[in-house]
Specification:
This protein is an alpha/beta fold. The chain has helices at residues 72-83, 117-128, 138-154, 161-181, 223-226, 238-248, 269-276, and strands at residues 63-67, 87-94, 132-136, 185-187, 192-196, 202-206, 229-230, 284-287, 293-297, 320-325, 330-334, 340-351, 359-364, 372-380, 386-397, 404-409, 412-422. Helix 1 (72-83) packs parallel to helix 2, helix 1 (72-83) crosses helix 6 and helix 3 (138-154) packs antiparallel against helix 4.
Length: 441
Amino acid sequence: MGAGGPAPGRRAGGTGGRRGGGGLGMDLGLYSEPAMGFYIGFTDFAMLTPAAVVGNTPSSPSKILVAMSGGVDSAVAAARLAKAGHQVTGVTLRLWDGLRAAPAGRAGPAGAPLPDHADDAHQVAESLGIPHQIIDHRELFARDVVDPFVEAYLSGITPSPCVYCNRLVKIQTLLRLADELGADAIATGHYAQVRRDEHGHPSLHRSRAGTKDQSYFLYRLVADQLDRLLLPLGDSDKQQVRAEAAALGLPNAAKQESQELCFVADDDYVAFVEAQAPGRIRSGPILDAEGHTIGTHPGIHRFTVGQRRGLGVALGSPAYVTQIDGARHAIKLGAAAELYASRVLLTDTTFGNDVTFPLTAEVQIRSQHRAVPATIVSESTAGGDRQVVLNFQSPVRAISPGQAAVAYHGDRVLGGGRIVRTLDTPAPPADPSPDHDTPDP
């Protein structure tokens, strides 16, 4: 996917990751890309042919940098590459350890210090007999991931920071280091696949095992990045990987699964945001479906669309957060039927060079959401700009601004974008089935 060279077909103007581009409404510029000159190109999707699997590791010995987080997945990825005869170097990015000096005017992070996974990664590298480097990227991570994460919650948006960390911090850093060291490729422990077609063009796909898939978090990677990315766990599931780590005697084989976000201790997002934004938390009104004030809340960062618990008021019937108004610091409650919508405005879109609009695909709006049929179109606005709109075949429940909407064709990732807002609220299905998954933090 992505942007490496002129694409056939029409270029979609103004829909890349730049602040305020393309007439995309309330784009806050959160997680905006640096000026990289990438574009979104489109050709006839109907002419696509299935990608041929050429394997997740190179056939000849190569010099490879492996991102090692200290967890079991990246450890096994490194072990597999080393066992295959490649010259492997482990690289750990120190991103956030809970001890970073707070920027001027802000308190430090909430909760106890996070564990130092770099030590675990170093022990694994020693056990494998491979070199290991630690790169301190805490300042970059704070600026490009943590600060936008906090700003999003303060604006009433539910962000998906891992999507942007993978592209803006982890993959770009590894590729730059690979160039400096003369490495042929980089590798991570993500559960996904990179495949190539008959012309050698790479594309991203779901994990073959299917029980654990992380392609959703990698959808923003472009062709130049995928071209040098290896995913050795693409055909494995977690149980296999953990058993392999134990068989190899890796020191972290029994290590528990990492927490949801690497920089939030105890997964307490509310406490984290409050600690990072002292003096900026504001209370506001709780509104009913008609817009009447029925209570007061302590801050919109505590809520997300679809939330039912912890609302602070009782309406006598089940109520859910149906809307968060960042400008008024208000949350609106309503019945489950009011959570359904079918038209969604997207921004910061990235699609494959062989993708054209209108695009029919299965679209996933949360990491644990089941992808459902939709059509993605590029429309003209009243001002003459272009905007990308997602039209679901059937209304979808609890669409949350800030989350990623990722389009698939079978197991191939076609691309996606960040949800800005819903454009309508149609009547729900006659018998709407409960959707128990929750937005990604």
